[in-house]
Amino acid sequence: MSQFNDRVAPKDFAKMPPEYRDLLVRLLTIQADCEIGGPHIYVDHWTLRAPTVDDQWRVARIASEEIDHCRKMLRLLNLVDVDRSDILERPRSKREVDAFKEDMPTWADFAAFGFLIDKVGQYQLEEMVGSTFAAIDDTLPIILREEKGHVAYGEQQLQTLIDSGDDGKTQAQAAISKWYGIGLDMFGKSGSSRTERYLEWGLKRRTNEEARRQYIAEMEPKIAALGLVVPDRLLGRKYL
What we know:
The protein is mostly helical. The chain has a single domain (10-225), classed as Ferritin, core subunit, four-helix bundle (Ferritin). It has helices at 18-46, 53-79, 107-126, 140-163, 166-185, 193-200, 208-225. Helix 3 packs antiparallel against helix 4 (140-163). The protein is globular and about 60 Å long. The mean pLDDT is 95.
């Protein structure tokens, strides 16, 4: 099949081939699950335990924005008569992506999560820019702007920990070493046949390995610029 480039309105979704419909619903469902997955990790513990009242406010704001991102993805699904509100009650062990099954015991974890995992989220959302499903274009600009803010806040908090002394730097390094590999796995397996179908239908722009390679090229210099050691990206990874 040559690449599909038409723009599909929600009212025309039912006319599309089953493969297109299945891929779009899967893509939006996974994104919604990821958006709500983060708050399920950190809201209970960090909203009122972050280091300062300003940080507590920021955690609450980030959680609110992520919940709203989930709400927007569920609304897109509702436009094509798909109800996936069940993901709001999904236990962490059943999340679509392993990153959202992890624990976040330290403030360094929260910072590294924002810096690394929200950055993966940004990459995933950028895949949908210009999607053949036209309704996505109305949703993405605000979500992407907010995700970039989450990444910047995570980087800022890592820098604050590093500047606080050896103990803070040790915590930051441990968190980066934990979350970097988890983030790389979020891009999915290299050579994925499903990704090729996403590309053919105009629902994604890059293969898993292309997106991961670009992420590595962007983030490893940023990790080094913080004065931290870049973790071994191949150790125990699932994506090869």
